[in-house]
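Deliverable D4.2, example record:
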Amino acid sequence: ICGPLMNNLVTEVEKIAAGVKGKIVRGDDIEKMASRSLEAGVFDLTDCLSKGQLDKALSVLSDLIDMKNSAVAINGAITKHFKRLYGASLAMQRGLSVGEIASLLEYRSDYPARIAMSSAQRFSLRKLRRAQKLCLETDIALKSNNNDEKRTIELLLMRIAA
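Output generated by the structure prediction step:
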């Protein structure tokens, strides 16, 4: 949720520990109090898309924008995530192990690789290739037009979901 940097993690743990009323920290405490990293938000967003939950994906996008993430950074993270899903899909077709896929996708453990593999299975290779193309088109649009950046990313999500 908080990203891979240890100094962010320490700050978030201290914040959550101070905000919990009892001695036990529960999952819902973390969900309520932890600041989500851009990567965690994008994972939630793409997970919603893979499950056909466009409205929820658009809500996550609004949250990411409300947290002052730039549209270019959000699109970059979406692009990176779909690239990893595409890589996971290809690797699974070739019979690579979870550890090999984790290494290929530059994950530090098998856990995020398993999640990527599960998510990748919900998309066809054709759809993953199309998502990459749409992300690149969105990057060009964000960097070259004077348009509503939020609407540009929303359009990307709708086109991926279609």
